[in-house]
Amino acid sequence: MQANEIYERIKSKFEDAIVEFKADAIVEPYLEVKADRVKDVCEFLRDDPELAFDYLMCLSGVDYGNGTLGVVYHIYSMKHGHRFVLKVKVPIDNPVVQSVESIWKSANWHEREAYDMFGIIFEGHPDLRRILMPYDWPEGSYPLRKDFQVPEFYNGMKVPY
Amino acid sequence: MATFEITTRSVKGDLKTDTMILNMGPQHPSTHGVLRLELVVDGEVIVDVIPHIGYLHRCFEKHAEQMTNYQQVIPYVDRMDYVAAMGNELAYVLAVEKLLGIEVPERVQYIRVIMAELQRIASHLLAIGTYGLDLGAFTPFLWCFREREKILDLFEITCGARLLYNYIWVGGVSHDLPSEFGKKLKDFLKTFPKALKEINDLLTFNKIFIDRTANVGVLPADVAINYGCSGPMLRGSGVKFDLRKNEPYLVYDRFEFDIPVGEGKMGTVGDCWDRYYVRVREMEESLKIIEQAWEQLPPGDVHSAIPKKVRPPQGEVYFRTENPRGEIGFYIISDGHSASPFRVKARAPSFVNLSVLPEISRGYMIADLVAILGSVDIVLGEVDR
Amino acid sequence: MGLLDKRFETENIIITSVEDVLNWARLSSLWMMQFGLACCAIEMMAASASHFDIMRFGIIPRSSPRQADLMIVAGTVTLKMASRVKRLYEQMPDPKYVISMGSCANCGGPYWEHGYHVLKGVDRVIPVDVYVPGCPPRPEALLEGIIKLREKIRRESLVKKKLPPVYVEEK
């Protein structure tokens, strides 16, 4: 199935959840949906027999730099061999996105990583802790945000060179 | 005199047992690096495993954003999965080339295939060698490293480095193959099947080894897909999925090779032995690919398509290739005006494969956990990036 | 002691100082802690495998720090790992030696500028005896580091202060 057919199929069911579909984006078309509906959309994408997206390839957090954070889902169907890109954007002062952990288990660690690196809160995640950084890393310090400042000391060790 | 308080437990006589928490790592000889596992055990039986990662978090994604151009990211990509650096470079470079929309000469594509497959053999040799070491077999480790050194020699005469190459560049490769490469490659292709047979006789079909690995850590196919497993983990569970066949890149569609899958020959489909044996069989298939690629290798200039400036248009790409450990993907965002990537996210196969560990190790003994962890074949540099 | 091997036809007595004997014993059986951090650990494994055979220097990998004399810090030390490296070092019995292998352990290596989670040099937490440069150093470089360490131990004294660190030069 091509991306625009997949889009039409989602549109027929979730007209209100769609923010934007960009068919002419470079390299791959993508669909942006609302942050509080992403779980429903994903559930539909997985369970619909025509779509059958059973494999989450990648889940990436992004800081767009203008006060917006984003989550990008790259999904794939083992059964049909087609792929699709889903996007969610949230404001940096209230970065809450629905978790898709219950749909694809692989999202568990990816979401923890996005939380660790960007501070995106995944609603409904069973175990949202830091994953790569130490558990006692300063609260509110998210390394991959564009405005991140390297702390001078961590546990008595000098961090900068 | 101290009085002894008699606990209710011993009075009643029913021996209640409790679970215990055991720490494994970050320094442990069988965790293949700096992985920490928190085990909840009931006697010898594992109730739960909680992996703690990040002890080798080297800020790859931050570095990718901070570099002055796209090419400077390649050395950092090398250092992600340091056992299969060629494969990482390949995935990253192909992603950038896709974003740029450039075609590379045929010769470059063939050289890349040869390098990627040699790297696959080298990586699997390390994986099975250390797997034997984990389970108490020391000799296969030495034999595997002997063969691995031959591949590293091939890399060394080509680009000067043994482990981290910076060989595959955007639009080409750094050096053409040297004149003596062909002879050395043919020597290797001739001697390696013999060595592989020796390793098979010594380890693969060894009764002790089979007893330790068969029917241990069984991963069903649907769980593997749901957890996003890839590579030998997925194929060991009987799913015939290989990006070289399913989404061919480079010139992989011109070669004949099989995709080995787990068949449950010694136990259940998807057990540790199956995952291990998929790796052994994959090395044979890689040999086939290298032989064909070497025969078809066309002449040409390997530097002709290297762009002077890498300035991709505004856009984003997710490109994935089949690394020895599974699907490695790079998600690159270009903002269209700067010379360095706006965001690079690496989808590391070990990171995703490791997340299934608690699922497949519950109910087994602690000693089995070593076998299970070895069969997942993680590289911590890639898990933590 | 290779110089004296099978040189005497009848019984004999060798006179030497206690220091020399102790140093000789120490440098001839440096048991190494089997402990790898990153890329360099693969080269360390290669050094201990068939081609380079580190065991001819009397170096035997031990899994426990309690049995080790030598710690090869092979790879990037991160902030999360630094306290563990320190603790492992403290668990080793004296006399103990440290080889810092690779640029990351020496000074942060390629991660020196933007590595917000990388310790810029393991010598910020534990003392280092020999620095081996390279990213990663070839097994030969590690072997040279070990030879340098042996030379250093040979010059040690029971009562005098510890010798300063030595460096393997890049060629």
TrEMBL record, chain A:
InterPro entries, A to Z: NADH_DH_suC, NADH_quin_OxRdtase_su_C/D-like, NADH_UbQ_OxRdtase_30kDa_su, NADH_UbQ_OxRdtase_CS
Enzyme class: translocase
Biological role stated in the UniProt entry: NDH-1 shuttles electrons from NADH, via FMN and iron-sulfur (Fe-S) centers, to quinones in the respiratory chain. The immediate electron acceptor for the enzyme in this species is believed to be ubiquinone. Couples the redox reaction to proton translocation (for every two electrons transferred, four hydrogen ions are translocated across the cytoplasmic membrane), and thus conserves the redox energy in a proton gradient.
Keywords, ordered alphabetically: Cell membrane, Membrane, NAD, Quinone, Translocase, Transport, Ubiquinone
HAMAP family: NDH1_NuoC
EC number: 7.1.1.-
Pfam family, one: Complex1_30kDa
Keyword Nucleotidyltransferase: no
UniProt GO cellular component terms: plasma membrane
NCBIfam families reported for this sequence: NuoC_fam
Predominant subcellular localization, coarse grouping: membrane
Annotated localization: Cell membrane
Name under which the protein is recorded: NADH-quinone oxidoreductase subunit C
Catalysis performed (reactions): a quinone + NADH + 5 H(+)(in) = a quinol + NAD(+) + 4 H(+)(out)
Example GO molecular function: NADH dehydrogenase (ubiquinone) activity
Assembly, per entry: NDH-1 is composed of 14 different subunits. Subunits NuoB, C, D, E, F, and G constitute the peripheral sector of the complex.
Family assignment from sequence similarity: Belongs to the complex I 30 kDa subunit family.
PROSITE patterns per UniProt: COMPLEX1_30K
Species of provenance: Candidatus Kryptonium thompsonii
Residues annotated as domain NADH:ubiquinone oxidoreductase 30kDa subunit: 32-152
Keyword Translocase: yes
Membrane topology: Peripheral membrane protein
From TrEMBL, chain B:
Bilayer disposition of the protein: Peripheral membrane protein
The EC number(s) this enzyme carries: 7.1.1.-
One Gene Ontology CC term in the entry: plasma membrane
Key words, A-Z: Cell membrane, Membrane, NAD, Quinone, Translocase, Transport, Ubiquinone
Molecular function via GO: NAD binding; NADH dehydrogenase (quinone) (non-electrogenic) activity; quinone binding
Catalysis performed (reactions): a quinone + NADH + 5 H(+)(in) = a quinol + NAD(+) + 4 H(+)(out)
Physiological role: NDH-1 shuttles electrons from NADH, via FMN and iron-sulfur (Fe-S) centers, to quinones in the respiratory chain. The immediate electron acceptor for the enzyme in this species is believed to be ubiquinone. Couples the redox reaction to proton translocation (for every two electrons transferred, four hydrogen ions are translocated across the cytoplasmic membrane), and thus conserves the redox energy in a proton gradient.
Subunit field text: NDH-1 is composed of 14 different subunits. Subunits NuoB, C, D, E, F, and G constitute the peripheral sector of the complex.
Family under the similarity heading: Belongs to the complex I 49 kDa subunit family.
Protein name: NADH-quinone oxidoreductase subunit D
Species the sequence originates in: Candidatus Kryptonium thompsonii
UniProtKB/TrEMBL annotation, chain C:
Gene3D superfamilies per record: 3.40.50.12280
Enzymatic reactions: a quinone + NADH + 5 H(+)(in) = a quinol + NAD(+) + 4 H(+)(out)
GO molecular-function terms, A-Z: 4 iron, 4 sulfur cluster binding; iron ion binding; NADH dehydrogenase (quinone) (non-electrogenic) activity; NADH dehydrogenase (ubiquinone) activity; quinone binding
GO CC annotation: plasma membrane; respiratory chain complex I
Residue ranges of domain NADH:ubiquinone oxidoreductase-like 20kDa subunit in the record: 39-149
EC number: 7.1.1.-
Membrane topology: Peripheral membrane protein
Enzyme class: translocase
PROSITE patterns assigned: COMPLEX1_20K
InterPro entries: NADH_UbQ_OxRdtase-like_20kDa, NADH_UQ_OxRdtase_20Kd_su
Alphabetized UniProt keyword annotations: 4Fe-4S, Cell membrane, Iron, Iron-sulfur, Membrane, Metal-binding, NAD, Quinone, Translocase, Transport, Ubiquinone
SUPFAM superfamilies: HydA/Nqo6-like (SSF56770)
Main location (coarse class): membrane
Record-level GO BP terms: aerobic respiration; electron transport coupled proton transport
Residues reported to bind [4Fe-4S] cluster: 39-40, 104, 135
Similarity remark: Belongs to the complex I 20 kDa subunit family.
Its biological purpose: NDH-1 shuttles electrons from NADH, via FMN and iron-sulfur (Fe-S) centers, to quinones in the respiratory chain. The immediate electron acceptor for the enzyme in this species is believed to be ubiquinone. Couples the redox reaction to proton translocation (for every two electrons transferred, four hydrogen ions are translocated across the cytoplasmic membrane), and thus conserves the redox energy in a proton gradient.
Self-association and partners: NDH-1 is composed of 14 different subunits. Subunits NuoB, C, D, E, F, and G constitute the peripheral sector of the complex.
NCBIfam families per the UniProt record, alphabetical: nuoB_fam (TIGR01957), PRK06411.1 (NF005012), PRK14813.1 (NF011388)
Name this polypeptide is given: NADH-quinone oxidoreductase subunit B
Gene that encodes the chain: nuoB
